[in-house]
Design a protein that fits this description.
- With about 150 residues, the protein is an alpha/beta fold.
- The protein is built from five helices and five strands, in the order E-H-E-H-E-H-E-H-H-E.
- Helix 3 packs across helix 5.
- The longest helix has 29 residues.
- Helix 1 links the parallel strand 1 and strand 2.
- The chain is globular.
Length: about 150
């Protein structure tokens, strides 16, 4: 059925449930897994006020180094979990992209036939205010998506 599963994670506890579910599915199907962690662009414009749009080099470097370190930790744990279950896997850290965009591109370029991701399942105003990367992926892909809540 599924041969290559893309498992998206942001390293949160909820995403961990998605990773665990995706890995169990991959194990049961004998599928390979690709883990993806996305780091969004530095939010310089979100500051507002007189400093809007201004970022010192040190702040940007710190943000990028911290993001890479965190991604490495998250993806190393995913890889260890996959190895423990005997699931063949690889991992990717995508930088300076929105999560939905990076997940969709990765699923296509890696020839994945299923995307697994977690979602809080917010509705109404909560979804509008917070946005939903999962909803965006579901609405824009032709690849099946398994949403873990």
């Amino acid at each position: 059925m599924y041969k290559h599963i893309l498992i998206a994670t942001d390293g949160s506890e909820l995403a961990g449930k998605g990773v665990a579910h995706g890995l169990e599915l991959a194990k049961g199907l004998g599928a390979a897994a690709t883990f993806v962690h996305v780091t969004e662009p530095f939010p310089a414009l979100a500051w507002g006020g007189a400093m809007a749009g201004y970022v010192t080099g040190d702040e940007l470097v710190y943000y990028e180094e911290s993001a890479r370190k965190y991604a490495r930790e998250v993806l190393d744990k995913c890889k260890a979990d996959a190895d423990a279950l005997g699931v063949a896997s690889n991992s990717l850290h995508i930088e300076n992209r929105t999560p939905a965009e990076a997940i969709l591109d990765t699923a296509r370029t890696q020839a994945c036939d299923l995307i697994v991701m977690a979602s809080h399942g917010r509705r109404g105003i909560g979804r509008l205010v917070l946005g939903s990367q999962t909803a965006e992926v579901v609405s824009l892909t032709e690849i099946p998506v398994l949403v873990v809540r």
